[in-house]
TrEMBL record:
UniProt subcellular location: Cytoplasm
Organism: Desulfonispora thiosulfatigenes DSM 11270
Keywords per UniProt: ATP-binding, Cytoplasm, Nucleotide-binding, RNA-binding, Thiamine biosynthesis, Transferase, tRNA-binding
Function recorded in the entry: Catalyzes the ATP-dependent transfer of a sulfur to tRNA to produce 4-thiouridine in position 8 of tRNAs, which functions as a near-UV photosensor. Also catalyzes the transfer of sulfur to the sulfur carrier protein ThiS, forming ThiS-thiocarboxylate. This is a step in the synthesis of thiazole, in the thiamine biosynthesis pathway. The sulfur is donated as persulfide by IscS.
GO molecular function terms noted in the UniProt entry: ATP binding; CCA tRNA nucleotidyltransferase activity; tRNA binding; tRNA-uracil-4 sulfurtransferase activity
Catalysed reaction, written as an equation: [ThiI sulfur-carrier protein]-S-sulfanyl-L-cysteine + a uridine in tRNA + 2 reduced [2Fe-2S]-[ferredoxin] + ATP + H(+) = [ThiI sulfur-carrier protein]-L-cysteine + a 4-thiouridine in tRNA + 2 oxidized [2Fe-2S]-[ferredoxin] + AMP + diphosphate; [ThiS sulfur-carrier protein]-C-terminal Gly-Gly-AMP + S-sulfanyl-L-cysteinyl-[cysteine desulfurase] + AH2 = [ThiS sulfur-carrier protein]-C-terminal-Gly-aminoethanethioate + L-cysteinyl-[cysteine desulfurase] + A + AMP + 2 H(+)
Protein's name in the database: Probable tRNA sulfurtransferase
Primary site of residence: cytoplasm
Catalytic activity, EC: 2.8.1.4
Domain THUMP, chain residue ranges per copy: 61-166
């Protein structure tokens, strides 16, 4: 029977003076994410160096999925909490060992003592607890180098904790500790990964999607909302701004050089995203751009595209290989949705020979034939907002 789930938070431990803020945010996020999972007595408690979810004997596994999707958690373990008494520790360790199921041929005990007034040091504690398990389990051996099973004992000021399982979390920093960014979310493989990586560094995100109805179907929009739903598994919810983009694309294709269509389109995406981000109090944009991947992802193109905004653009994938990006998308659960066939707004107005090294000045010249302000404002006025929540 487990009393608590012990949570290790890794990188937050390296923070200096503002560590407290990071921890309080982590606790807040855990509380929010496990709400409704356990019974009314479930609590989240912050102790020195650790966070505990007090579960009082509930099945710990019901919390695993939520804890495995919270940024800031390095790993977690279901633990038995006992008093600072060797007898109690021994009994809990034996019980924990027996709960492993089929008896392993050998094992090892690891002990850690952060409460220095406990009479045994960690080596002595390992020996004592190991001995107790051995004499109560006929046929069992110790192997400290290559153990088939391990039991951990952690002696802290308030209690001792005994466990045998360590489940990996997703690391990173708690969402909300790094401010907010507006993610440009398309239906492809890259931008959902960029959103996940941005959240992993502690940023809260909203998403903006440029929809080219009737050239792109309702299915394309649904696909983007499904991707946002997967991202919401990590954040609780995501606000998606769906911007009608058709009028802008038609104006560009009617009035600008074909080779600049993509760059000018992207400049509009940046202008509109920045404007919506400002309205939402956000100080950054995030995209799934990766250098060299397609014609519009060269440094010249990035230079021309970001020339119309003053907001920093976070590009978490900028130097990643496609294979690495796909690996992350498989891991986080967006890949299967991203590969669903659909028509992207950029493929509808795809020039035969897009410029790979567009110049800012050429774009500015071409855009003189467009009423930029009216087009941007109309698209923002007609934007639809959808809030997607975790399933
Ligand atoms: N329709 C759209 N709505 C919102 N953002 C978009 C849209 N199309 C492109 N973007 C943004 O521009 C970035 C670059 O898009 P591009 O189509 O050049 O690259 P990509 O490698 O196909 O990206 P992705 O796989 O994310 O679609 C995307 O990662 C995304 O952030």
């Amino acid at each position: 029977m487990y009393d608590n789930i012990l949570i290790r938070y890794g990188e937050i431990g390296l923070k200096g003076k503002n560590q407290k803020d990071f921890l309080h945010r982590l606790v807040k996020n855990i509380k929010m994410r496990i709400k409704g999972i356990g019974n009314d007595e479930t609590k989240v408690v912050l102790e020195r160096g650790r966070v505990f979810v007090v579960i009082n004997g509930q099945d710990p596994e019901i919390f695993y999925k939520a804890l495995g999707t919270i940024f800031g958690i390095l790993s977690f373990s279901p633990v038995r909490k006992v008093g600072l008494d060797l007898d109690e520790i021994n009994k809990a360790a034996l019980e924990e060992f027996k709960s492993l199921g089929e008896m392993p041929e050998n094992f090892k005990v690891n002990a850690r003592r952060s409460f220095k007034l406990f009479p045994l040091d960690s080596i002595e504690l390992q020996r004592e607890v190991g001995h107790y398990i051995l004499v109560n389990t006929p046929g069992l051996k110790v192997d400290v180098h290559n153990p088939k099973a391990e039991v951990w004992v952690e002696v802290r000021e308030e209690a001792a904790y005994v466990y045998s399982k360590k489940i990996n979390g997703i690391g990173g920093l708690p969402i909300g500790t790094g401010g907010k960014a507006m993610l440009l979310l398309s239906g492809g493989i890259d931008s959902p990964v960029a959103g996940w990586m941005t959240m992993r560094r502690g940023l809260e995100i909203e998403a903006v999607y440029f929809h080219s109805h009737p050239y792109t179907s309702e299915k394309a929009k649904e696909k983007v909302l499904d991707l946002a739903r997967v991202l919401a598994e990590y954040s609780g919810k995501i606000k998606v701004h769906i911007v009608p983009f058709t009028q802008i694309q038609e104006a560009i294709s009617a009035k600008c050089f074909e080779s600049l269509w993509i760059t000018i389109m992207r400049r509009f995406m940046m202008r509109i995203s920045e404007r919506i981000a400002e309205q939402q109090g956000m100080l950054a944009l995030a995209t799934g751009e990766s250098l060299g991947q397609v014609a519009s992802q060269t440094v010249e193109s990035m230079h021309a595209i970001t020339g119309v905004i003053n907001t920093p653009v976070i590009r978490p994938l900028v130097c990643m290989d496609k294979r690495e990006i796909i690996d992350v998308s498989e891991k986080i659960g967006t890949y299967e949705i991203s590969i669903r066939p659909f028509i992207d707004c950029c493929t509808v107005f795809l020039p035969k020979a897009p410029k790979t090294k567009p110049k800012r000045e050429a774009c500015e010249k071409a855009e003189k034939y467009l009423d930029i302000e009216a087009l941007v404002q109309k698209a923002i006025d007609d934007t639809e907002v959808v809030i997607v929540k975790k399933g």
